[in-house]
Structures are given as structure tokens and as C-alpha cells.
Amino acid sequence: MIAIDTNVLVRVLVDDPDAEEQCQQARDLIVNYGDAWVCKIVLIETVWVLESAYDFTKEQIIFALETLMRNPNIHLDDAENLNNVLTIFSASNAGFADCLILNDAQRKRLVLHTFDKKLSKLHGAKRLGVEL
């Protein structure tokens, strides 16, 4: 098994006409090694790249992550909880990273304190604010 970073994972997921050779190399890498491990930080960065550089919608991001989860050769860090994260993400306006953080706090039975308005609307999060 190998570990892959964000650049490789994005090339596996996206058909980028400006990086055709890299896309093929990334896909060949997975085929040749058979198994690849992806840490949470790489997932967070990948979602950010898909949103910001490739204009993926939330639905496209969820589809891409679900596809990764179904791939027996891709081993996602904390994969058993990713379904919960995707449920929170799909049902809210909060970002993927925030949903991942909230899920981790919930698993530890902790209330997540935040200044983020979107995140604070979710069960298990509490907004900190300045009272005027």
C-alpha cells in the first residue's frame, strides 16, 4: 500500500485537459500498487480544490467522495465515519471541513464551539458571539 497526496487524488478524480499526463500517471499509480491510503487532510484539501479550481457543486463532491468510499483500492482515513460526515454536509450549508470537525466532536460527545454562523446551526455546535 502507498499513501497519496491531494495532487494525486485530484488527478485520479478529475479529467483535466491541462494535466492529461498527470491524470494518467496518478491512475496508473493506483493500478500498479493496488492500494492507496488517503488521510483526512488530503480529503479536506481535495474537496477545497474540487470546489475552487474545478467548480464542483456540492452534489458532484458528494458523488466523488462516495465513489472513493466504494473503491476497494482506496483506503480513506476514518472511512467508517465518512458517511456521517457526508450526511451532515449534504443537509447543511456548512463546509466539508467543518462537517468533519463537527462529526469528530460528536463522536467524542463534545459540543463544538464556533464563531461560524453556518456551522453553529447544526446539532452539536454552539455559536460564540459578542453580545452588544
Structural description of this entry:
With 132 residues, the protein is mainly alpha-helical. It folds into two domains: 2-77, no CATH class; 94-132, no CATH class. Helix content is 55%, strand content 11%. It contains seven helices and five strands, in the order E-H-H-E-H-H-E-H-H-E-H-E. It has a three-stranded parallel beta sheet. Strand 4, helix 7 and strand 5 (125-127) form a beta-alpha-beta unit. Helix 1 packs across helix 3 (40-52), helix 4 runs antiparallel to helix 5 (82-90) and helix 5 (82-90) packs across helix 6 (96-107). The longest helix has 14 residues, at 20-33. The radius of gyration is 16 Å and the shape is elongated. The chain starts with a strand and ends in a 5-residue tail after the last strand.
What keyword list fits this structure?
single chain; 132 residues; mainly alpha; 2 domains; two-stranded parallel ribbon; 5 strands; 55% helix; elongated
Average pLDDT value? 93
Described by its quaternary structure, the protein is single chain
Label the overall shape. Answer: elongated
Helix content: 55-70%
Strand order of the largest sheet: 1-2-3
Q: Count structural domains.
A: 2
How much is the radius of gyration in Å? 16 Å
Alpha-carbon distance between the two ends: 55 Å
